[in-house]
Amino acid sequence: MPGEPRTGVISPAQLTIVVVCFVSIYFIISFYGKSLDSYRVNQRANDVRRDVARLEVQIKELHEKVTYLSTESYVETTAREKLNLVKPGDLPVVVLAVGSDIATVAGPPPPSEYPRPFAELGHFADWLYLFFGDR
Q1: Which residue among 22, 33, 101, 126 has the highest number of C-beta atoms inside a 10 angstrom radius?
Q2: In the structure, what pLDDT confidence band is assigned to residue 9 with cuts at 50, 70 and 90?
């Protein structure tokens, strides 16, 4: 019948709209993926630039330190202070302490009048006293 709509048949206009929608969705997804990749690459490039700047500053500091450490005054000061060296013709001076600050170790504990409970085991009681004190 000519007046009734046909069921199950797609018109060319509907087919064109469906194809255009799928192609548009494909391009949108592809564009989003490329944009995300570009963003990640830019982030990585910024990280690398920051690392390069930090390393350049560190290299500059190290060059300055090498320059300082190779000066004659630093070498002489280090030789005198750390290695205890003197120049030819200098008189070394050794400063001794006035008091006798000698480290001593306390002797063994005084013998007690009480019977030692572990006397048959040798010095076990002495070790107990040293580690745990008088109980």
Answers
A1: 126
A2: confident
Does residue 95 fall inside a structural domain? yes
- Give residues with Cβ within 8 angstroms of 98, minimum separation 6: none
Q: What is the pTM of this model?
A: 0.44
Residue 41 falls within a domain, yes or no?
Answer: yes
Q: What percent of the chain has pLDDT over 70?
A: 76
In a domain, 4, yes or no: no
**Where does residue 112 fall: left (phi above 0), alpha (psi -120 to 50 degrees), or beta otherwise?**
beta
Residue 91 pLDDT: 81
Tokens of 28: 């949108």
Residue 81: pLDDT over 70: yes
Nearest to 126 by CA among 104, 111, 106: 111
Domain that holds residue 121: 12-132
Backbone angles phi, psi at 13, to 5 degrees: -70, -40
Measured in degrees and rounded to the nearest 5, phi and psi for residue 65 equal -65, -40
Number of domains, the chain: 1
